[in-house]
Amino acid sequence: SSLQEELEGTDPASSSEETTIEDQHQDKITQLEQEKEAINQQYLRLRADLENIRRRSQMELAGSRQAAQEELVLQILPVLDNLERAMNTPGDNDGWKKGMEMVIRQFQEVLMQQGLEPIPAMGVTFDPQVHEAVLREPADAPDGTILQEMQKGYKFNGKVIRPSMVKVADA
């Protein structure tokens, strides 16, 4: 029988070796495809992590910048207060007063461009979120109405950085 198989050119051992080699190659291909997919998934995760780090860094930088600007504005506010007080002192020199008004206006414009905005106080109803009552006084105005602003309050980029110090009507 083996002589007949040799004559016909079919060797059962050779045939099974070819399928074994093909199976081994197919197994290797499958293994490599799985490794490729795993590496690709790892790459995508790392890329997403990098993007998240980039985004978080930008947000932290923006927060730091905001804090630095806020600190600068807080340091400049007393200067603005003093300029405004100087304007309210009695004096006969109109030229000096006009010059001071120009300086104050320019100074206010620079601060407004940086995100500073004054908190309205006179004649409005007291709001503890933006006003600090330092005095209460009986008055004809409705209870809680602000009668006098002792010191201006300010918001910086929408956040109260200094509440207005006010005198409030006590009915």
Can you describe this structure in just a few lines?
The protein has 171 residues and is α+β, with helices and mostly antiparallel strands. It has helices at 2-8, 12-87, 94-113; strands at residues 116-118, 131-138, 146-151, 154-156, 159-162, 164-170.
What does this entry look like structurally?
Strand 4 and strand 5 form a beta hairpin. The protein has a three-stranded antiparallel sheet with strand order 1-4-5. 60% of the residues lie in helices and 18% in strands. By secondary structure, it is of the alpha+beta class. It is built from three helices and six strands. The mean pLDDT is 86.
Given helix and strand content, the structural type is alpha+beta
What about the largest sheet?
A: 3 strands, antiparallel
The dominant shape is elongated
- In helices, the fraction of residues equals 55-70%
Mean pLDDT, rounded to whole units?
Answer: 86
- The H-and-E topology, N to C, reads as HHHEEEEEE
Rg (C-alpha, Å): 40 Å
Task: Count up the helices.
Answer: 3
Low-pLDDT sequence parts: none
Strands, total number: 6
Classify the beta-strand content into a percent band.
15-25%
Q: CA-to-CA gap between the ends?
A: 123 Å
Strand adjacency order, main sheet: 1-4-5
